[in-house]
Please model this.
Amino acid sequence: MNRTQIIIVRHGQTEWNIRGIRQGYLDSPLTARGLAQAKALGQRLARENFTTLYSSDLGRAVQTAQEVASVTGHAIVMDARLRERHLGIFQGLNAEEINAKYLEERKAMRSQGPGYVIPGGESMVQQVERNMACLNELAARHAGEQIVVVTHGGVVSGFFRHTLEISLEAPRSFEFVNAGINVFAREDDNWMLLTWGDVSHLAPGAASEGDDP
Model:
């Protein structure tokens, strides 16, 4: 029986995380704290035996993955399917700005739930389907191996819900922290959660949930 393990991590804290600006497919650089988180993550992952380092192609994930690669020596394999949800018209705005400019669309997103397609963007359902298609493919490609995936909060959250069979409609009752270690395993086409939110490699108070939806 081949067990494939995926260590999946959210990027380090970004400037827009702390300002409450919705990022989606847009980007902002890591903060000083975010860079420190990424460096600590690299030191932690250097103790792991993994074959391949994957990353979303968005800058905040790549910047985090580069700090890992600088320690472990892995090449970074980028895959756009590991991107955060495309937030369309909401991208680049904070909650107050969204309410001021797109109040009806914000209400529609809340009332229609995960199936709502944000104008110019995608629904949560579409995002999770895209992410899981990628993660399932990577698990099959690396059967019996351990790999690392650097991605986004929404991706990590969707993976968690998929594995534990938590409905996308259910209110979120768990954290997904910047640069936290999460480990999932796949056996016989079934996913299981092994480790969630390990921040033992970060300084006290270094974890930050940020604002990725």
Q: What stands out?
A: The chain has one domain: 4-198. Residues 4-198 form a domain with the Rossmann fold fold (CATH 3.40.50.1240). Confidence is low (pLDDT under 50) at residues 209-213.
